[in-house]
Design a protein that fits this description.
By secondary structure, the chain is mostly helical. About 65% of the residues lie in helices and about 10% in strands. It has helices at about 1-40, 60-70, 85-104; strands at about 70-75, 80.
């Protein structure tokens, strides 16, 4: 039974990491779309948007827009925040920022 529990735990960790990477990818896609559409002076369409651009201080406003856009439910005119997703993405961004700071 202990061996089965270990396998299940490894599978849970793998699913968790995959979900985290998927969330980071979604935030990055929203960041890239927001950067190119709302801030064309900083990011013209000919320039590639890097993942590391997300963590630069001057791009914090774009990251806020991307974060808000990803964590909202749009029902016609009313927008509601997905609070569970917002909290998970927040902690994920903090963890990713620490990793970028250490490696950069």
């Amino acid at each position: 039974m202990k061996v089965r529990a270990r396998v299940d735990k490894k599978l849970e960790v793998r699913r968790s990491v995959m979900a985290d990477m998927c969330r980071l990818a979604h935030v990055f896609c929203h960041f890239r779309n927001t950067a190119c559409s709302k801030f064309p002076s900083r990011f013209p369409e000919t320039v590639e948007v890097s993942i590391l651009d997300r963590f630069k201080r001057e791009n914090f406003e774009i990251l806020e827009f991307a974060y808000a856009n990803y964590t909202e439910i749009k029902d016609g005119e009313a927008c509601k925040e997905k609070s569970g997703l917002a909290l998970a993405v927040y902690y994920l961004l903090v963890k990713a920022a620490k990793n970028v700071k250490v490696s950069g």
